[in-house]
């Protein structure tokens, strides 16, 4: 690493003084050594530098900063950086009077007039370069060193460090776009000195062990094909043919693929839903040993199981909408029933690094938090790339063993090799190594604090704007909202605050503000225990007029699909859209400017709606594609029509019933897949689907989870599942350009749904 940024927080110096002359010499020498030197005079500027410059490699702070600011600056450096060399400049004869913690933080002292500028600059230079060398995590450090040797490539990939691309004009454009370094580090497993992903040796093995330490695991495995592969891998390593497994009905489709691979027999744990149609937690009453035993006894798939007891359970934590369990409590409830518990934490990899999520992630379940013989072995799968900083598809599996069913590395690695590639992309491995390293020490807390803080600022901004609009009385009083408690109570003082007025520091540090209190109207979920479930503040659900968490339908409605379509015209893409809600993710890459554009877009949409703007003016592409349907409508009329359709079809109540009352299983997913392979299926119109067995998964988005699993019976014509799918089909016909995304469904030219079923 060449050069660095040096922060000098030394206060104000008279330019004609001896100290200023000495400091000038130090800066001149550092500049010759390729360091960028930034001088600040005030506490405010010093703190701004600490917040904004992650590339600092040394800080030099004067103990004599005005107003005792040195302590504030030093604490900010401690909170932001791990092992950053900090030199303290003092005019005192000794350091005996300094607070003890200061002497523990700083790496050395500088008396500006007692040594030459070259000597002082040399000390800073050495400290900066040592810090830069030690900063990098194991694999990324060795990959950089290998790249720096500039050796010729005699191995795959055949582009040979990018040289092949330079021999074609098309390839040259590709090479120039990404730059040489990407291709020089795209290496083959033939490079033995970088280790083996299959054998978990060398720098790769060091990186996995370093990640295990950082994430609190006994073992960690790097997975290069996303959390989907990690889920299949964990299923495949834990389930044998015809064994009973407990499966969260709110599962990712990769869990179904894992069941297909293993021949496991699923018994479903069914989450609740609220009036918005959002999927809630599985009630704790559903996870007790007695409830699980009853479910297994009632399940047709358990009749011919290899053994009566389930061997594994998988729970989605957190849910897409940001609901995260007390993982220790879940393990306590399910532990007596299963020896292994898998938490699919695809969207929750950051949880360990902020006390707001204490006990709410898989690796928090250990002998200290849950002593006793019933503690299950915990497995967590995480999409590191989703909400931490890694390249797409880069994921991890974490393991915390218990004596009941420990994961044996050699056995697990056999499964790992079945799902891993023999041509791993080294930049992806490096990104996992770096993503873990970024969260090590105080960096993890600092990064998560920032994301949480920006999410809460956005939530409060939306609430304040809504209140101002209502108070102004110069325009229609409606505005969008965000899903969260309406008010919070400070547990220390008993002070009660409207959410918009609550102190920011309390909201970002007090978990009780975000827990789902039993019976609270704002969340609308039944059968909860106090502290059992928490709403993650960084997953922000925007709410539109039309319904509430209790399912009370309003006269006026603005369906979220229309809002999402407008946001897309503003180049704002949301993560998920339901009937009257859409999900915004506040990742570590969020900025005030970024969410400020979203606020502006929400205000603009309100203005279009209130002023009776036309669909062609607001959605020109939509009107151009469907002129006969939308050409004469205003935005408000379109919202009214869609709201009326959603009301008359009872879409949300049907969704609730369809997803909380799973159909009767006839065959396991694996048995169904065998029929699919050998031509034992046929397409069936939705109108004729009653009493058929589906051959493929039917996943509706929203909400993005299975409504029908392979091998399940569709039920009678009037059953909620078929009525729900019928409501989606009718909606798609009525509102072209706003299609439902439903995997496992094909649509013909007449707008009819077709689903693949087993032949009768």
UniProtKB/TrEMBL annotation:
GO MF entries: arginine decarboxylase activity; pyridoxal phosphate binding
Domain Orn/Lys/Arg decarboxylases family 1 pyridoxal-P attachment site: 381-395
GO biological process: antibiotic biosynthetic process; L-arginine catabolic process
Assigned keywords, A-Z: Antibiotic biosynthesis, Decarboxylase, Lyase, Pyridoxal phosphate
Short name of any one Pfam family annotated for the protein: OKR_DC_1
EC number: 4.1.1.19
A Gene Ontology term for the protein's cellular component: cytosol
SUPFAM superfamilies for the chain: Ornithine decarboxylase C-terminal domain, PLP-dependent transferases
Stored InterPro entries: OKR_de-COase_N (IPR005308), Orn/lys/arg_de-COase (IPR011193), Orn/Lys/Arg_deCO2ase_major_dom (IPR000310), Prn/Lys/Arg_de-COase_C (IPR008286), Prn/Lys/Arg_de-COase_C_sf (IPR036633), PyrdxlP-dep_Trfase (IPR015424), PyrdxlP-dep_Trfase_major (IPR015421), PyrdxlP-dep_Trfase_small (IPR015422)
Residues recorded with modification N6-(pyridoxal phosphate)lysine: 386
Family label: Belongs to the Orn/Lys/Arg decarboxylase class-I family.
Name of the protein in question: Arginine decarboxylase
Organism: Amycolatopsis umgeniensis
Lineage of the species this protein comes from: Bacteria, Bacillati, Actinomycetota, Actinomycetes, Pseudonocardiales
């Amino acid at each position: 690493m060449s050069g660095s940024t040096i922060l000098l927080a030394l206060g104000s110096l008279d330019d004609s003084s001896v100290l200023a002359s000495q400091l000038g010499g130090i800066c001149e020498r550092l500049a010759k050594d390729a360091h960028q030197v930034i001088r600040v005079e005030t506490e405010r500027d010093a703190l701004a530098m600490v917040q904004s410059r992650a590339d600092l490699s040394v800080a030099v702070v004067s103990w004599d900063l005005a107003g005792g600011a040195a302590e504030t600056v030093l604490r900010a450096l401690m909170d932001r950086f791990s092992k950053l060399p900090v030199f303290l400049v003092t005019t005192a004869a000794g350091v005996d009077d300094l607070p003890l913690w200061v002497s523990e933080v700083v790496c050395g002292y500088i008396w500006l007039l007692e040594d030459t500028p070259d000597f002082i600059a040399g000390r800073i230079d050495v400290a900066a370069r040592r810090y830069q060398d030690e900063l990098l995590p194991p694999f990324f450090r060795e990959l950089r060193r290998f790249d720096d040797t500039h050796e010729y490539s005699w191995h795959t990939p055949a582009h040979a460090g990018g040289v092949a691309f330079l021999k074609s004009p098309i390839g040259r454009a590709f090479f120039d776009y990404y730059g040489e370094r990407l291709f020089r580090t795209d290496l083959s497993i033939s490079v033995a000195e970088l280790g083996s992903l299959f054998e978990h040796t060398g720098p790769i093995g060091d990186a996995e062990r370093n990640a295990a330490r950082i994430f609190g695991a006994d073992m960690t495995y790097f997975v290069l094909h996303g959390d989907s592969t990690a889920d299949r891998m964990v299923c495949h390593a834990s389930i044998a043919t015809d064994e009973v497994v407990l499966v969260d009905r709110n599962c990712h489709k990769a869990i179904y693929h894992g069941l297909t691979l293993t021949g496991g027999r699923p018994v479903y744990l069914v989450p609740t839903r609220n009036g918005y149609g959002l999927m809630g937690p599985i009630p704790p009453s559903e996870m007790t040993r007695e409830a699980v035993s009853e479910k297994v006894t009632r399940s047709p798939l358990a009749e011919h199981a290899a053994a009566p007891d389930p061997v594994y359970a998988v729970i989605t934590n957190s849910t897409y909408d940001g609901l995260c369990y007390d993982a220790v409590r879940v393990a306590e409830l399910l532990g007596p029933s299963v020896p292994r518990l898998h938490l699919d934490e695809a969207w929750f990899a950051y949880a360990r690094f902020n006390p707001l999520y204490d006990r709410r992630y898989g690796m928090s379940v250990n002998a200290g938090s849950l002593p006793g013989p019933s503690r299950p072995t915990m497995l967590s799968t995480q999409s590191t790339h989703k909400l931490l900083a890694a390249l797409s598809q880069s994921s991890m599996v974490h393991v915390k063993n218990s004596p009941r069913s420990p994961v044996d590395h050699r056995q697990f690695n056999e499964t790992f090799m079945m799902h891993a590639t023999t041509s791993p992309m080294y930049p992806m491995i490096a990104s996992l190594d770096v993503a873990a390293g970024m969260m090590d020490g105080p960096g993890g807390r600092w990064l998560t604090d920032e994301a949480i803080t920006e999410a809460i600022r956005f939530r409060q901004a939306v609430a304040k704007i809504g209140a101002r609009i209502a108070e102004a009385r110069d325009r229609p009083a409606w505005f969008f909202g965000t899903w969260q408690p309406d008010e919070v109570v400070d547990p220390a003082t008993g002070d009660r605050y409207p959410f918009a007025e609550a102190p920011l520091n309390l909201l970002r540090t007090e978990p009780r503000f975000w827990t789902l209190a039993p019976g609270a109207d704002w969340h609308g979920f039944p059968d909860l225990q106090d502290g059992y479930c928490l709403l993650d503040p960084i997953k922000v659900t925007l709410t539109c007029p039309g319904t509430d968490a209790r399912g009370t339908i309003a006269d006026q409605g603005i369906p979220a699909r229309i809002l999402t379509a407008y946001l897309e015209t503003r180049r704002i893409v949301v993560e998920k859209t339901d009937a009257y809600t859409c999900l915004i993710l506040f990742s570590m890459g969020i900025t005030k400017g970024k969410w400020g554009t979203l606020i502006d877009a929400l205000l603009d949409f309100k203005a279009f709606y209130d002023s009776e703007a036309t669909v062609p003016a607001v959605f020109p592409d939509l009107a151009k594609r469907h002129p006969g349907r939308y050409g004469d409508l205003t935005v408000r009329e379109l919202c009214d029509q869609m709201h009326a359709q959603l009301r008359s079809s009872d879409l949300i109540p049907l969704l609730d019933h369809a997803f909380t009352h799973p159909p009767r299983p006839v065959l396991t997913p694996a048995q169904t897949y065998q029929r699919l392979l050998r031509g034992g299926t046929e397409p069936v119109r939705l109108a004729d689907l009653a009493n058929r067995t589906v051959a493929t998964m039917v996943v509706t988005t929203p909400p993005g989870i299975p409504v029908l699993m392979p091998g399940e019976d569709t039920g009678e014509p009037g059953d909620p599942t078929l009525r729900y799918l019928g409501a989606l089909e009718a909606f798609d016909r009525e509102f072209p350009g706003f299609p439902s995304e439903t995997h496992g469904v094909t649509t013909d030219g007449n707008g009819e749904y077709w689903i693949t079923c087993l032949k009768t």
